[in-house]
Amino acid sequence: MRYMALRAKVSPLRISFHMASITIVDLLRFAPLQAAGLFPKLLDAVLEEGKLFVIPERRKRSCPRVVKGKPQKYPKKNTSQR
C-alpha cells in the first residue's frame, strides 16, 4: 500500500485498505496460474491500479473527542456520615 500511495502521490492513509487488500490477495491467489515471468508486470499493474483506491481527505471533527466519566455504582459516602 505504501508503494501504491507513492505512485498516486498521496499519503498512505488515503489509500483504501479494504480495496487494496482485496486486490493484493487476488494477485497472490491467481499468480500461480500465470507464467512466472509475468509476475513483475502484474505487480506493476496492481500498483498502478492503486490510483483508483484513493479516498478523500478526512473532515475536521465538529465536536472534539472527550472521555466521558464512568458512572459510580454506589453513592459516595459523605464525610459527615462517618
Blueprint of the fold:
Blueprint: H1 2-8, H2 17-30, H3 39-49
Please tell me about this protein's structure.
It is a single chain. The chain has three helices and no strands. It is mostly helical and 82 residues long. The longest helix is centred in the first third of the chain and has 14 residues, at 17-30. It is elongated and about 85 Å long. It has a domain at 1-52. α1 (2-8) crosses α3 (39-49).
Count of DSSP E strands? Answer: 0
Q: Which structural class should the secondary elements be placed in?
A: mainly alpha
- How many individual helices? 3
Q: Tell me the major beta sheet.
A: none
Q: Indicate the radius of gyration in whole angstroms.
A: 25 Å
- Euclidean distance between termini CA atoms: 63 Å
Mean pLDDT over all positions: 87
| Percentage of residues in helical conformation | 25-40%
- Gross morphology is elongated
Which consecutive residue ranges, at least 5 long each, have pLDDT under 50? none
Order of helices and strands: HHH
- Note the beta-strand portion: under 5%
Oligomer: single chain
Short descriptors:
0% strand; elongated; 82 residues; 3 helices; mainly alpha
Q: Can I get a quick summary?
A:
Helix content is 39%, strand content 0%. It has 82 residues and is mainly α.
